[in-house]
Amino acid sequence: MRYISTRDKTNIVSSSKAIIQGIAEDGGLFVPEEFRKIENLDSFIGYSYNRLCKYILNYFFDDMKYGIDEAVDRAYDAKFKDRVIELKDFGDIGFLELYHGVSLSFKDIALSILPELMKLAMEIEKTEEDILILTATSGDTGKAALEGFKDLERFKIAVFFPDDGVSFIQEKQMITQEGKNTYVFRLLGNFDDAQRGVKKLFSDKEFIEELNKMNLKLSSANSINIARLIPQVVYYVYTYLESLRKGKLSKADKINFCVPTGNFGNVLAAYYAYKIGVPINKLIIASNENNVLTDFFRTKKYNANRNLVKTISPSMDILVSSNLERLLFDLTNDDKLIKDKMKELFEVGSYSINIQSDLFFADYIKQEETKNNIRIVFDKYNYIIDPHTAVAYGVYQKYLNETKDKTYTVIVSTASPYKFPNEIMDAFKITYKDEIDSINKLSILSGNEIPKQIMDILNNHKSKEIVVSKDNMKEKLLNTIKQGGSNV
User: Fold this and answer.
1) Does the pTM exceed 0.90?
2) Is 305 exposed, middle or buried (CB count within 10 Å of its CB: 0-12, 13-18, 19+)?
3) Which domains does the chain have, with CATH numbers?
4) Looking at residue 105, what DSSP letter applies?
C-alpha cells in the first residue's frame, strides 16, 4: 500500500517513507492511496489481539511485512499484563477499556508499536541519520511516547506539554520520566500553542539544517504520523469481532462507537476501520466545552477563533483538530481544496467546507454534566470512569434521546480513573487533603488496588522538565540536545 499527501495527491511514498517522514514535505498528512475492504471479516472471530494486529498492520504496511509479526509481539508483551484492551459489557452498552498499558491511557497501544515500526522503516529506507521524535501533548501522548522511545538506540524524543493544562498525574508521569534520550518541556501556553509550535518546527528549514549537523532527522509521535494512527484501527476491528463472538451482535448487525476526542485521531481510526469493512452504523463524536468539532459537524464551518476552556477532561482541550484534515480529504478527494482550507485555518483561524456523510453524530457536554455522568455510571453499573469517558457517556445519552437508536454502542474509555483522582472525588463530593489522599479514596470507592504505575510516580521525586515559552521552542530544544538534556 502506498501513501499520498492530503495536500498533494502526486506526492506518493511507500509506507516506510511515510512513517519516517511523519508529515509530508508540503505540510499535508499521509493517508492510504486507497482502501480495500477485508473480505469475510467475521472469519477473524476468536483471533487474539496480537494475531489480529499482525494481520491489520501487514494490510496497511505491506512493504514492511518481513518484520511486523515480531514487532507486534515485542510491543504487546508483559507490560500489558494479561490484556491489551478489555471490553466491559453492561448489557445495553459496552465500555472499551484502552488504558492497561504503562501510561494508563489509550495512547500506550499505538505508542508501544510505533518505535518498532519506525525501526523497521529505518532499516528499509536505509536511514543513516538518527531520529528526533518531536511531539506536543495534551496529556496522555507525552508519557506514552516517552516510555515507548526511552533509551532506544538511534532515537531522541522531545515532548512539549502545556503549563497548567494537564492533570497532576499526567504532569507527574512526564516530569519524572527516565531515559538518557528523553527531553520534557513545560510550555508556557496551551496545547494549541504547543501543537502549532511543533508543526512550525517541522517546516523550519533553519531548524532542520541544525539537526542535520547533529546527524538527526525529524519525525513525530503524534497522530499526524500514520504509524501512530493505524495501530488504533486494530482495537475497533477487534471490538467488533469480540461483540460478535460474545453474541452482542449478529453478522447482520451494525455497531456504534462513541469516542471522546479533541484531536480527532481516535475517531479517524474508527473511520478507517469502517473503510476496511467494520459495519459501523454511527460514529458519535463526543466533545467537552471546547466544542469546535460539534460546531463543525453541525454547520460545516470550522472556527478555532475562540477561547480555550480548561476542563477536567484536559486531553480534549484542543481547538485545532489535526486529524480532521484526513477525513476531509477522504470525503472530498480534493487535495487542492484541502490545501486551501488548511491555509485558511492557519491564516484566519477558520474555514467552511461542504462535506456529506451520515456516519457522524457530534455533540458536547459541560463540566458539571461530566461530573454528573461519573456518578450516574457508578450508580447504574458500579463502575468508575474517568472524565473523558464521562464526556462520551453524556454525549451518548444525548444521541440516544435524540435518535432512539437501539444499535449496540461501545463507549471508548481512553484513560484510567486513577489519572484523575481529584476530579473524580470532586464528582462524588468527597473531600480530600491532596492527590495521594484522593488516590487512596478512589481505591476504596472502586474496590480496586492502586495501579503500580501510579505508585511508582508518586514515589519518584525527581524532575527533568525544562520551562520554555512558545517563542523560544526552537532555541531551547536545540541547546538542550546539544548539551545532552541538562535542565537549563
Assistant:
1) yes
2) exposed
3) 78-102+227-446 (3.40.50.1100)
4) B
Query: Which of 356-376 are b and which e, b meaning 16 or more Cβ less than 10 Å from the residue's Cβ?
Result: eeeebbbbbbebebbbebbeb
Helices of type H across 281-413: 292-299, 324-332, 335-348, 367-381, 387-403
Amino acid symbol at 467: V
362-388 per-position pLDDT tens digit: 999 999 999 999 999 999 999 999 999
pLDDT in tens, 150-163: 999 999 999 999 98
**Nearest residue to 117 (alpha-carbon basis) of 172, 76, 167:** 76
Grid coordinates belonging to 326:
484526513
| Segment (H or E) for 481 | helix 473-482
> Which amino acid, 304?
A
| Dihedral of the alpha carbons of 232, 237, 242, 244, in degrees to the nearest 10 | 160
Instruction: For cell 490545501, name the residue.
Output: 339
* Phi and psi angles of residue 194, each rounded to the nearest 5 degrees, phi first: -65, -45
Q: What are phi and psi of 271, to 5 degrees?
A: -65, -40
Q: What average pLDDT is seen over the chain?
A: 93
Distance CA 362, CA 473 (A): 35
**Dihedral, 15, 125, 127, 53 alpha carbons, nearest 10:** 40
User: Distance (Å, rounded) from C-alpha 480 to C-alpha 488?
Assistant: 7
Residue-level pLDDT at 476: 94
Helical pair 226-245 and 49-60, crossing angle rounded to 10 deg: 130
Spatial CB neighbours of 234, under 8 Å, sequence gap ≥ 6:
49, 52, 53, 56, 57, 109
